Amino acid sequence: MNDMNRVATEVATVKLLIDGTFVESRSEQWRDVVNPATQAVLARVPFATADEVDAAVRSAQQAFKSWRKTPIGARARIFLKYQQLIREHMSELAAILTAEQGKTLADAEGDVFRGLEVVEHAAAIGNLQLGELANNVAGGVDTYTLLQPLGVCAGITPFNFPAMIPLWMFPMAIATGNTFVLKPSEQDPLVTMRLVELALQAGVPKGVLNVVHGGEDVVNAICDHPDIKAVSFVGSTKVGTHVYHRASLAGKRVQCMMGAKNHAVVLPDANKEQTLNALAGAAFGAAGQRCMAASTAVLVGEAQAWIPELVAKARTLKVNAGTEPGTDVGPVISCAARERVESLIAAGVEQGARLELDGRKPSVPGFERGNFVGPTIFSGVEPGMRIYDEEIFGPVLIVLAADTLEAAIELINANPNGNGTALFTQSGAAARRFQEDIDVGQVGINVPIPVPVPLFSFTGSRASKLGDLGPYGKQVVMFYTQTKTVTARWFDDDTLGHGVNTTISLK
């Protein structure tokens, strides 16, 4: 039940964060936050008004005046404290996340932990936000650069990683001296808000971090607001493309991480057991709701005979609520998401793909109302089928065949998306050729989900990304700062009095 205008009940309301205070929205539009395993309403989230968005931005703009001048060591110490608080509350955060998003408790802890890694990286900001110096580039002249914060920045995050992706955004933006307005997913904002509470507890000053909730109107307000200097987005290709063009036209820096179709290529020499385990985990973990899920397997040559063993491996996975012990695959986020996944499975059958394992309508005793889809496998898939051309975002693995590694590379490079890919092999020569020739931003060699650690940057490419610089890592320091170049000359008394110089030379 998601009645946007229903009367208030006893269910808790999700607050806005404006100028350091959690406030009740005055909005007349609300949405239920629903447990996807039970349909229980956990809370009600407001769709913030235009005035509330303006108030959040004003607060951030005012706070920027002092925050940008805060010593870099003081900023770093806040994030040292913050990472400690996240560790202390890991189990609580995972429980909140599982209740509202559906993934297993173990996967929820992983969600929080991958965000925690970025917080730890933000605590090292003193080593990251460094300029350059060239001494004596001309007579008595030095040139150096400053990496200065932009001002008010904003982030728009998706439902599938409600801990990790907000933690990709606001810690690095704030650590580099900016202030931030965050818009979490309206489907599962509770764990995000708990992380925000912990950030304030760690010492983030009032106004430096603000939170608004909402849908399309709030997204557009963020894109249009003249006082927001940069926007970071993770989500669907449709919305991300809209955000990129609208915010760019408004003069903002924008980075958008969007949809994917991640191929995992399997050569016949790969370690079979390790590869089958990796494929099943990467395809069906988090119910397939990962932008880096290995949703598409390309079996090369004799590896095509592995399909029955892949199906057998998938059959061993347990479908249940994320809170239940031993669960491998939890529910998808909503009834609408389940219906979409089921419709794409039906389309695969209609278009001639071979349904090796049908996960529709699994029996989950005690959770009959849950949004469950079990592991599903198609073979005989070809480009042009909807299950290949569209991102399914559910626990569905599609299998294509290729005669050679060259044919597999050609297939992948013809796909418009470029988020991630993987190769399973024991051949160093094959691995080197693959990583050189593949036109995808993130490559795994015997690693099914090659999301880099925060020392590096998330580097999705092509239709999976808009904007030059990725989130976290070295690239995001450049995204959240403006490079200012200073050329300076200081005169000694005996160097004065050389007269007027009308040339461009610094000699």
From TrEMBL:
<dbReference type="InterPro" id="IPR016161">
    <property type="entry name" value="Ald_DH/histidinol_DH"/>
</dbReference>
<comment type="similarity">
    <text>Belongs to the aldehyde dehydrogenase family.</text>
</comment>
<dbReference type="Pfam" id="PF00171">
    <property type="entry name" value="Aldedh"/>
</dbReference>
<dbReference type="InterPro" id="IPR016163">
    <property type="entry name" value="Ald_DH_C"/>
</dbReference>
<keyword id="KW-0520">NAD</keyword>
<dbReference type="GO" id="GO:0004491">
    <property type="term" value="F:methylmalonate-semialdehyde dehydrogenase (acylating, NAD) activity"/>
</dbReference>
<dbReference type="InterPro" id="IPR010061">
    <property type="entry name" value="MeMal-semiAld_DH"/>
</dbReference>
<keyword id="KW-0560">Oxidoreductase</keyword>
<dbReference type="InterPro" id="IPR016160">
    <property type="entry name" value="Ald_DH_CS_CYS"/>
</dbReference>
<dbReference type="GO" id="GO:0006574">
    <property type="term" value="P:L-valine catabolic process"/>
</dbReference>
<dbReference type="InterPro" id="IPR015590">
    <property type="entry name" value="Aldehyde_DH_dom"/>
</dbReference>
<protein>
    <recommendedName>
        <fullName>methylmalonate-semialdehyde dehydrogenase (CoA acylating)</fullName>
        <ecNumber>1.2.1.27</ecNumber>
    </recommendedName>
</protein>
<feature type="domain" description="Aldehyde dehydrogenase">
    <location>
        <begin position="22"/>
        <end position="486"/>
    </location>
</feature>
<dbReference type="InterPro" id="IPR016162">
    <property type="entry name" value="Ald_DH_N"/>
</dbReference>
<dbReference type="GO" id="GO:0006210">
    <property type="term" value="P:thymine catabolic process"/>
</dbReference>
